[in-house]
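ok so i was messing around last nite and threw this chain in just to see what happens. nothing serious, just curious
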Amino acid sequence: MESAWDGEGVTVPSRLVRRGAAAWRWMLQPWRSFGLIVALIASFAVPSFMAASADVFRLAAADAITRQAVEDDPGGLDATLMATGRLSVDGVQALEGATRAQLGRVDRLGEPSLTLYVPGADLGLQTPPEEDGAPAETIIGSGARFLARDGAIAALDVVAGDRSVEGLWISEDRSEQLGLGVGDLVVVNDRDPVPIAGVYANLWEGERDPYWDDLPAVVVPSYSSVYGGALFEVVVLPESLLLSLGVDGVARWEAAATETVETYAGLVEHATQLRGIERSYTGSDEMAAAIAEFAGDGGPVPALMTDTFDIRVDVDRVLADLDQPIETTAFAGIVLGLVVTAAGAGFAVRRRAVEMRLLRADGDAWWRFALRAIVQYLPAAVVGGALGVVAGWALIALPGEVDRSRWDVIEFRPIVWTLAAGLLVAAAVTAVAASRLLYTRQAAVAGLRPAWLLPLLGGAVAAWIQVGSAADSGEVDLLVVAFPLVGLLAGVGLVVFAARWLMRRVHRTGGSLPPALFFAWRRITSAEAGAVLLSAAMGVALGLIVFTTTLVDSLERATDAKTTAVVGGQTQAQLYFPYDGELPETTTIVRSQRTRLTIGGGVVAVRAIDLDTYADAVTWDPLFGGSAEQVVEALRTPVAADVAVVVAGDRSIPTGGGFGITTVMSYEIVGTVDSAPLVSEAHPTIIVRWDQMIDVARNRHEAQRPPDVDRDDWAATFRSPFVGARRVVVSQLNEEALQVFLAENDADVREFTTVADRERLAATRAAQWAFGHLGLLAAVAGLAAIGTMLFYLSEQRTARRISSMMSRRMGMRPLADAAAEVMELLGLVVIAYAAGASTAVLIAHRVFDRFEPDRRVPPDVGLQTSWPLLLAIAALGVGVVVIAALVNHRIAARRSYGEVLRDV
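result:
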């Protein structure tokens, strides 16, 4: 069958083929330009990168915070199951079998150990009846906790007795008190008489087997100053003997974690498996029957004790604070990526302006251009989306922050929607730009600048006010994340356009400048809108980098300073009672108290230090002002008053006065520091010499001695001014080493605090992670700006070749021509960096005031601007610009004069 004619001498199939070939050539045209290919792919890779990085970054944050939380609580993954009921052979065996089966289902738990004990002091010893049928008489003061556990008897320090005898083991103190010795018969709970198998050394004094350090505190006696001995007594006996007594007690199964948790998913799995133990109380027939056998019908169910649930709550709380900021930052990054997509589409339109003008003049409607753009950019969107996902995964997962096999964490649906939105944006830009190519004037485009700059300035001012008004809130919300983005766009845009306006005002000056500098100046002042936008884009990118790095570094610095002020060293221990024994190296004791001070009518905190050990034991942060050695030397200064003091903190203290509790001592200020270890959060703090205060108090006490009282007898009545002071041990040792030393020297420790403990309390982790994610956005923006600069150079290459050839024919040396191009781009970068860095530091100051940790703890830590960091960022930008300019100049210089004119 022959083809129909179209009236112009061409068959219909031929016409379709020709139109298809023309359309195919149209679609392939952009891919013949390497720069355009890179621009299109990058424009779609940026938004997909931000969409993918949000999920990966959230996972990385969850895993990192989980690891930190687990490290802060080494025994937090352990589990203990404690049940209360009748201690009988059948009941304990039934519950033990069911409990071991349930604990065995938790992958990370080892083999549990069983402890049986009778709590309280309700169970006591009785004397055997002298006659049959006569009741046994209770031995007064014999109430104790009865303990049965594998290895307990073997871990006792035997004073007298035989471990092969099945009987009771009592402490040396209780043996002397009750007059009971080895071999004596006693009765427990009206049962048959049992012998005292042995007497063991008191567990609460001297050295003991490390076995007792691993047992729960509820079964290990401790010293009590009230009783002058053990707070409670423990009778150790074999398990079979305890089960034969038929008493109510506690069965405790302890299972330690055999491996740690490295990921948030692992923590959730561990917590879920532990929750499965609680569900087994009713879900498992074996467990339910065992509980009924042990505790009786309707009796209490076992209690599961572990820190795992608390750890997960802490991690979830931080992640909840992070979730919204990460989503906000990702959304901002997607918006930025879509802007880059729009810029890439505009760049493609500009590269094909001649073709589009012809098509527009031929009557093509805007929707044709939009459809062409969608089909044309679809391969770029697919390739760019894939690269964005891979880049988002590689930047976070490959360094080892997350499990590299967890691709399932990425939600691909938002990425697909993002790419679809990018295609629509590119199509809209192409359609609008192509339909206006014949009519849009440059003046109209220039008039649009205030239209978008003024709303940005208004939004930045409103955000500035709102962030300041919420300065007491540490929550990272939408406003806080949007503030630096809006502020940088407004600030950089204002500075760039102001600089452009000023430079245009002096456009014709500079005739006496060297040729290279003159050419650079004229090119900058006559730069088109693309160069201005390039400078603004680089300013925003560099500003974001400066903002995030400065803010995160300042938050970490402030946390370190505040932690040092509270803890004092690596480890702090508070003692119940005075301790005058030896101390390990790099350790000191600070006597801390508040006195009835006459200074300003307020209560002043006093920190009395030991000059010989203080400087080596404390961590002195540079923000404190001075040094520990300077404080020690200042306190050695002879003074006319009773004592010399160094004032710590920003509280005003008069130069003269007196302080004390029972005795007022005069003082003289010999130095001031901004802060110091153990500085008070709410009160003025002074540092004094401990020995100087003791000497003054002794001299005054001696001066009040009656004539008829012996000197030694009177000295015995001396009362130290630090009787009620709190003893704080500050050390550079870790907690374990300090704990062992103090235990070996019988120091009664109330609590330990470490730097890690205090840093865990800092409410800045969510902020640091959130702004760290914003740093990813800054890095992407920086890459986009560099790419824009390279495309700008590529677009201007033909014009630069003509300019270069003309300048050479006018006598300019090739080196001067290259220097002119380098200085031109450097001028744009300098303007961009000055605008971005100054605006970023200003915004960072505003945001930092909202997140400063522990504001009541001096010193008052402000934003720490790292000048080396700012110089490094500037040097990196300059280096990239210089290299790009020289490469572009070298490419342009390869063409001869005739070849350049032929291309024109």
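not much to say yet. Residues 547 and 840 are 5 Å apart (CA to CA).
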